What does this fold into?
Amino acid sequence: MTDAAHAAALEAATAAQALAANPNRSAYATANAGSGKTKVLIDRVARLLLRRPDGRPGANPDSILCITYTRAAASEMLTRLFETLGRWAVMEDDPLRQALARLEEALPENYALDQLKAARALFARALETPGGLRIETIHAFCARILRRFPLEAGVMPGFTELEEDEAREIWQTAKRTAILRAAETSPVSLALLAREAGRDGAMSALDALKSAGRSLRAFAGLHGDHWPAMEQALRAVIRPPEATPDELIERAMGPDFPVAGIRFAIAALDGGKVTDGKTADLLREVLSVSAARERFDLYTSVFLTSAGEVRKKGPYTKGVADAAPLVAELFAIGDSSGTETQRILALLDDLKRAKSFARTKALMELGLPALADYAAEKTRRGALDFDDLIERTRDMLASEGLASWVLYKLDGGLSHVLLDEAQDTSPAQWELIRALTQEFTAGQGIERLRDPRTIFMVGDEKQSIYSFQGADPARFLKETQALT
It folds into this structure.
């Protein structure tokens, strides 16, 4: 890149950052790593604090909430913001005018002495704000809100917060206890989970359940923790066949397997082209295998690609189909699928539902006791884990009976919400943020302040690394579109 091109790219990037940092409207920014998203967040907070062009004071420090993903990120942003405000506090007039003009894309001569004085005072103003500037993780924010409204949220006043290592230790103990118990009471379910989870065993299978633990325990409570009722509810949703997966395969590849038709098809395919011959060889191999599972695995490749998708056409040429119509009657794929195609595809669907039911049932048999033990230990300690903090706050803010009161108390002091690393925000966190900011554009809250109340999000869907907890880049894009 030439020097001129480099300068032009830098100028364009700087202009884009300044546009994103404009605090007068809700906005979002998606950009690659290292493109200055954190700088934009800091610049936007600084611009919110500055005196407005018409001379009125800027936003109160405690009316701005900046949600980051980690404590380290929150600490870094707070440090960098205070460094900026600290520099302003000791700058001479002309350098300060230049700094403010660069930040706000204005002319240096537009800044009067009273504006410079207000900018210098921001450092002390931010330091003196009760509770400090609100640049924090979403979990820290939730803990602060729950401590303010413990009765409304249904949590124990004075609760403690479980750190990740503490919560992990409690959960590990609960899992071990559940697995030892299952070895005596539910050995079949335990073996299924261990087999399906691979080398990590049943312990990892239970880990996958934990993020949905509260919903699962609510499901159990809805059915009185009565296993037959829960099993019936699962059957109603999944609709599995009565037979087990092994029984389905044994029947499909045994009594229901059309051996005579397959032999006729082999003879017809042998007289066709090279591809027909390969299909004939595959069918011969299917007939030579006695084990139902192995025969089934071979046979499905007649209808499915190596990627497991249904083939676009039957495994034979037109010449074979014209000479022996029975081949198409058995193996046609498409609008007029053959009898064997229909049978195997229906079998695959039955197997999918049967396996889903068996896995879910086994996971619940082991997981519900583990979740109950985990919850009991948290209650004994008077503690909430990170998931509890999010879910309890979300539920409180979404509750029709409590939300108006809680949001009124919060709404009066909250005017701007900024969200960092938004691509890793989980569905529960999105629901919380939406409940928190719904009054920004409608209802009573919009009438309280003359100035626009804004939401700002930055992220990069390509950097999403928390899909295991439900983070979905597509949800990030959907939320950004809601701002436009």
